[in-house]
């Protein structure tokens, strides 16, 4: 179900309208084949942020509702991916095991014996034997915990992929304004997309869209002219999330394709709108990092098109339509959960700056969504 200011719009499976043109009140989608230059620029925008090394910081029952995106393809086995030796992309659980091993290596013989006794393990043997015994115990515990937690800590995951104003050659100081706010809701227990939200947003700083932006996103001038400004749309987003009982009854988090959506688009938009950055969006899963870590591929192979291809999936819908992008990102996340990946928050905003969340950080869900206060 596609919610638009409280109204629903159904879709027809395999209808050409979903790929090329949809013309319904409040939801127009302009037919346009992806332009290679546009595609390259959009990906480069993400890559500029991805290539920066972030600072390290230490009962259910939601009904299944069809989305406006094309029907899901049948499950297929992922294409084998050649593992790499890039330590940066090792699975987070092994980083935790390495940290535990380092701590064990620094323990004295008496400390080792005391810890083994505490865990009701055999305390006999020389120091190296006790180290090995303790390391094996922690490795087994970590791997068992990781397998049991995979995809189950969060009840729901909100996939977000904003579309924003842009020029063909953006000036360095260009202020991007959000013009489409989509959310695709994943139920991690059912392993299904259960609902979607989408609204267009009226830009205020640069109210007239560039021809490049219209061609890239398929969002027309009329669509943003007829839309509400960002604060009003954000209030409806919060209400939609509250109706789902996210953060109260259900644990949840956000997920994005890269760092750009939250650290740049949302950050800039909140400043331009004179509101504080929403607390529920301060932490998220960057699926590019999660994908690279889990399948052990370099970051250059984690663009949306590459991730889909390696998993044996095809893009469904119109590239750079925010809702369709979010839908396809959600399909990747679902496949990763099915493959046993433990999706967890790996990035956050701290005092307006993007930072990494270490894999050793405790798991926690996003707070209940509330409307952010004014900056003044």
From TrEMBL:
<dbReference type="InterPro" id="IPR013520">
    <property type="entry name" value="Ribonucl_H"/>
</dbReference>
<keyword id="KW-0943">RNA-mediated gene silencing</keyword>
<dbReference type="InterPro" id="IPR051274">
    <property type="entry name" value="3-5_Exoribonuclease"/>
</dbReference>
<dbReference type="GO" id="GO:0031047">
    <property type="term" value="P:regulatory ncRNA-mediated gene silencing"/>
</dbReference>
<dbReference type="InterPro" id="IPR036397">
    <property type="entry name" value="RNaseH_sf"/>
</dbReference>
<keyword id="KW-0540">Nuclease</keyword>
<keyword id="KW-0694">RNA-binding</keyword>
<protein>
    <recommendedName>
        <fullName>3'-5' exoribonuclease 1</fullName>
        <ecNumber>3.1.13.1</ecNumber>
    </recommendedName>
</protein>
<feature type="region of interest" description="Disordered">
    <location>
        <begin position="1"/>
        <end position="68"/>
    </location>
</feature>
<feature type="compositionally biased region" description="Basic and acidic residues">
    <location>
        <begin position="36"/>
        <end position="59"/>
    </location>
</feature>
<dbReference type="Pfam" id="PF02037">
    <property type="entry name" value="SAP"/>
</dbReference>
<dbReference type="GO" id="GO:0006364">
    <property type="term" value="P:rRNA processing"/>
</dbReference>
<dbReference type="GO" id="GO:0005730">
    <property type="term" value="C:nucleolus"/>
</dbReference>
<dbReference type="InterPro" id="IPR047201">
    <property type="entry name" value="ERI-1_3'hExo-like"/>
</dbReference>
<dbReference type="InterPro" id="IPR036361">
    <property type="entry name" value="SAP_dom_sf"/>
</dbReference>
<keyword id="KW-0378">Hydrolase</keyword>
<feature type="compositionally biased region" description="Pro residues">
    <location>
        <begin position="365"/>
        <end position="376"/>
    </location>
</feature>
<keyword id="KW-0269">Exonuclease</keyword>
<dbReference type="InterPro" id="IPR012337">
    <property type="entry name" value="RNaseH-like_sf"/>
</dbReference>
<keyword id="KW-0460">Magnesium</keyword>
<feature type="region of interest" description="Disordered">
    <location>
        <begin position="352"/>
        <end position="376"/>
    </location>
</feature>
<feature type="domain" description="SAP">
    <location>
        <begin position="104"/>
        <end position="138"/>
    </location>
</feature>
<keyword id="KW-0539">Nucleus</keyword>
<keyword id="KW-0479">Metal-binding</keyword>
<dbReference type="GO" id="GO:0003723">
    <property type="term" value="F:RNA binding"/>
</dbReference>
<dbReference type="Pfam" id="PF00929">
    <property type="entry name" value="RNase_T"/>
</dbReference>
<feature type="domain" description="Exonuclease">
    <location>
        <begin position="156"/>
        <end position="342"/>
    </location>
</feature>
<keyword id="KW-0698">rRNA processing</keyword>
<dbReference type="GO" id="GO:0008859">
    <property type="term" value="F:exoribonuclease II activity"/>
</dbReference>
<dbReference type="GO" id="GO:0005737">
    <property type="term" value="C:cytoplasm"/>
</dbReference>
<dbReference type="GO" id="GO:0046872">
    <property type="term" value="F:metal ion binding"/>
</dbReference>
<keyword id="KW-0963">Cytoplasm</keyword>
<dbReference type="InterPro" id="IPR003034">
    <property type="entry name" value="SAP_dom"/>
</dbReference>
<keyword id="KW-0597">Phosphoprotein</keyword>
């Amino acid at each position: 179900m596609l919610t638009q200011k409280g109204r629903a719009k159904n879709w027809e499976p395999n209808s050409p309208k979903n790929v090329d043109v949809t013309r319904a009140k409040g939801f127009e989608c302009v037919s346009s084949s992806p332009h290679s230059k546009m595609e390259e620029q959009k990906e480069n925008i993400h890559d500029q942020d991805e290539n920066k090394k972030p600072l390290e910081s230490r009962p259910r029952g939601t009904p299944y509702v069809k989305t406006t995106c094309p029907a899901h393809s049948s499950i297929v086995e992922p294409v084998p991916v050649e593992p790499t030796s890039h330590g940066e992309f090792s699975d987070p659980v092994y980083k935790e095991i390495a940290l535990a091993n380092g701590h064990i290596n620094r323990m004295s013989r008496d400390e080792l014996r005391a810890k083994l006794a505490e865990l009701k393990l055999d305390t006999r043997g020389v120091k190296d034997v006790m180290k090995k015994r303790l390391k094996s115990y922690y490795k087994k515990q970590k791997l068992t915990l990781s397998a049991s937690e995979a995809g189950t800590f969060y009840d729901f995951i909100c996939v977000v992929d904003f579309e924003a104003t842009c020029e063909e050659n953006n000036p360095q100081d260009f202020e991007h304004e959000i013009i489409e706010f989509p959310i695709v809701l994943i139920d991690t227990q059912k392993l299904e997309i259960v609902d979607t939200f989408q609204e267009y947003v009226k830009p205020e700083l640069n109210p007239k869209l560039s021809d490049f932006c219209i061609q890239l996103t398929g969002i027309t001038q009329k669509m943003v002219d007829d839309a509400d400004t960002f604060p009003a749309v954000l209030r409806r987003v919060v209400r939609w999330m509250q109706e789902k009982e996210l953060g109260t009854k259900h644990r949840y988090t956000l997920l994005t394709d890269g760092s750009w959506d939250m650290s740049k688009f949302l950050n800039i938009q909140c400043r331009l709108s004179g509101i504080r950055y929403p607390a529920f969006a301060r932490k998220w899963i960057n699926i590019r990092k999660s994908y690279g870590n889990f399948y052990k591929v370099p970051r250059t192979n984690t663009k949306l098109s590459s991730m889909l291809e390696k998993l044996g999936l095809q893009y469904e819908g119109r590239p750079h339509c925010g809702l369709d992008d979010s839908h396809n990102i959600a399909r990747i996340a679902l496949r990763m959960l099915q493959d046993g990946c433990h999706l967890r928050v790996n990035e956050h905003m701290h005092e307006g700056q993007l930072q990494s969340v270490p894999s050793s950080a405790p798991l926690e869900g996003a707070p209940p969504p509330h409307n952010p206060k004014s900056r003044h």
